[in-house]
Write a structure and sequence with these properties.
With 626 residues, this protein is an alpha/beta fold. Helix content is 40%, strand content 13%. The protein contains 21 helices and 14 strands. It has a seven-stranded mixed β-sheet with strand order 1-2-3-4-5-6-7. A seven-stranded mixed β-sheet has the order 8-9-14-11-10-13-12.
Length: 626
């Protein structure tokens, strides 16, 4: 049997498009004996760390490949596959450019397949399934988000492009403007990615998908001839939206949510069948028996791909002096630590116990190459105090004598006999196979003072060198029932009752859910109650949208947007990376928490009042232990 690698799959992180988690896709690929699977989510690499982690746990029986579908300025979508680390860095920068660049909204006429005056009988696929609607013009969104063709050209190095599915520029043009328009669209891609007939060298492929739909054979025949005429190789993909056929109903629900309609009214917007599931090599060879090279090209192309997330190239920044000068990180940390210890513990020489503990900690920190991390945290704390902002380290960092003398924490670990190894030891290995980074959480007064610290970090490392970590908001009890209820056509009164009666919104099992629905006015014998319970089981826990962590920030040596794409946060003057704290930790990306506490704000205001009255209370350290 010949081989096949699936190089175009979406997960549920293509919000409201994909219907399966990256973990489910990885498991299904393993069950189908696929040698590799490429995850190409829409305008992001949100699910890539989880996909990579799933493959890692199975000893990479399925090789995890990375890419993304990029929304272009004309509304078309170009799938891009990462070949090298340079390609990955370019993809992250391209997505960041599309997300962070301010675009001017405008009102433009939507182009709908099958309704264009130029789409006549020459384009039967414009009436595929009786209906086809292209993606809305991205410029019409409230906050436009798209890449321009010049940006795509600027960041094209190390990337491989496909012509895409029905939203791709070539098929989109053929359905609306005919063969000439499709040829022009292919020429536009070829001007960026070149023309090469050899699939082992080509950077542009004409993508073919078969989903057992009316007229698709004629469209495939056209694409085959177009590829031959333009000297571009063919590539067969599954255009995967879900791992298994049972998840197709989730895709239909997401389609309804995307179009603000119900299952009853969605009509031919819905899937005609379950053919966008993951398929085995045998199934794909049978599906493309007339074009075997298109299937084999998937293997040839996948073997050229060098990059995995193991090769991110992330580096935590080195500490620099205020004038920008470089220092030996280990030596400078040792110097300031002992200087701070003498200042904090009194003029007398350090006791043997203190000297031994500080030396032991500093030796371990240097051996693990964490000196720069401690210097940067110390420097941020020093800056905050210079600006009269209360700061206090928390957690297991209080077990460190180095953190105590540097003023990062306020608890004396020697006096209180705290165990340093609970905070840091060389036996702790992270998911990336490297020593696990220390976790120092810094508490600040909530409000403007904490925000000024965050903005200082942005100032130091640049808008594309630092970002908040993401928080993946998932479908929970109330949100799942409300969204599913809308799609199934339940009235707002019943859904509002459910939300108001069950504020916490989660339920332990199906029976509990059915009882809660009954009390909300949706009886068990309701013809759609069973469907609601089944859909809740499939959708509950899937990603819904991206939020931002309450205070976690990641910083990078160089540009962070070459490691992970950045996008604007809802709060002004903030950006957020596309991965959450667990994803970052598993890939060796260091997070520092800048947390805002209301009680810290009260303490700060209290000490300011004491200072105004002439009292001696100026810092937390001035408060007597009793």
């Amino acid at each position: 049997m010949h081989g096949y690698a699936e190089l175009h799959a979406r997960s549920a992180f293509s919000f409201l498009r994909g219907a399966s988690t990256p973990e489910d896709l990885a498991a299904a690929a393993l069950a189908k004996n696929l040698p590799a699977l490429a995850l190409l989510d829409r305008d992001g690499v949100y699910g890539a760390p989880r996909f990579y982690g799933s493959a890692h746990r199975e000893q990479f029986a399925v090789r995890p490949r990375v890419g993304a579908e990029i929304t272009m300025e004309d509304g078309s979508v170009v799938p891009l596959l990462v070949a090298t680390r340079t390609g990955y860095q370019n993809l992250c920068q391209l997505i960041t450019e599309a997300k962070l660049t301010e675009r001017v909204p405008h009102v433009a006429r939507l182009v709908r397949g099958g309704t264009s005056a130029q789409a006549g009988s020459d384009h039967p696929c414009s009436h595929e399934q009786g209906y086809h609607e292209h993606a809305p013009d991205p410029r019409e969104r409230k906050r436009p988000c798209f890449a321009t063709w010049s940006e795509l050209a600027r960041f094209s190095g190390g990337l491989i492009a496909f012509t895409g599915d029905e939203d791709g520029p070539v098929r989109r043009a053929w359905r609306t403007t005919g063969a000439a328009g499709a040829g022009t669209a292919l020429d536009q891609l070829a001007a960026i990615f070149g023309r090469e007939t050899d699939p082992e060298k080509a950077r542009l492929f004409v993508e073919l998908q078969r989903h057992r739909l009316r007229h698709e054979d004629r469209e495939i025949g056209f694409l085959r001839d177009l590829a031959l005429a333009h000297r571009v190789p063919l590539l067969a993909t599954g255009g995967v939206n879900y791992a298994i056929p049972e998840h197709r109903i989730v895709a239909d629900v997401f389609t309804c949510l995307r179009h603000h309609t119900t299952l009853d009214a969605a009509g031919r917007r819905l899937e005609s069948n379950s053919e966008r599931r993951l398929k085995s090599p045998a199934e794909m060879h049978a599906r493309f028996a007339d074009l075997p090279d298109a299937v084999e090209n998937s293997v040839r192309l996948e073997q050229r791909l060098e990059f995995t997330l193991q090769n991110l190239g992330y580096q935590f920044p080195e500490y620099r002096l205020s004038d920008g000068g470089c220092v030996d990180q280990d030596a400078y940390l040792r110097e300031i630590t002992f200087a701070a210890a003498r200042a904090k513990l009194g003029p007398a020489p350090l006791t043997p116990r203190w000297e031994a503990q500080l030396t032991r900690e500093l030796d371990l920190i240097a051996r693990l190459k964490f000196s720069g991390y401690f210097l940067i945290v110390w420097d941020i704390c020093a800056w905050a105090r210079a600006k009269n902002i209360l700061v206090q380290g928390r957690g297991s960092a209080a077990n460190s004598a180095v953190c105590y003398v540097l003023g990062i924490t306020a608890v004396d670990p020697i006096k209180n006999q705290l165990l340093f190894d609970r905070f840091l030891n060389d036996s702790r290995i992270g998911a990336d196979g490297n020593p696990s980074w220390p976790d120092i959480d810094l508490d600040f007064p909530s409000g403007e003072r904490r925000e000024s610290v965050i903005q200082e970090v942005y100032r130091r490392y640049g808008r594309r060198g630092a970002a908040m970590t993401a928080n993946v908001i998932t479908y929970r009890g109330r949100s799942t029932i409300r969204e599913v209820g809308k799609v199934l056509g339940f009235g707002d009164d019943a859904l509002n009752r459910f939300s108001s009666l069950y504020a916490n919104g989660d339920f332990p099992d199906t029976l509990g859910l059915q009882e809660q629905l009954k009390l909300s006015g949706i009886a068990a014998h309701h013809p759609r109650a069973e469907a609601m319970v089944r859909l809740n089981r499939h959708i509950h826990g899937l990603p819904r949208h991206l939020g931002q962590h309450s205070g976690g920030m990641v910083i990078c040596q160089g540009q962070l947007d070459r490691v992970v794409p950045l996008e604007p946060a809802t709060m002004p003057d903030r950006s957020v990376c596309q991965w959450d704290k667990d994803d970052c930790e598993n890939l060796g990306i260091v997070k520092i928490d800048f947390l805002g506490l209301g009680m810290m704000a009260v303490l700060q205001e209290t000490m300011e009042l004491c200072t105004a009255r002439g009292d001696a209370l100026r810092t937390i350290n001035d408060i007597p232990p009793d």
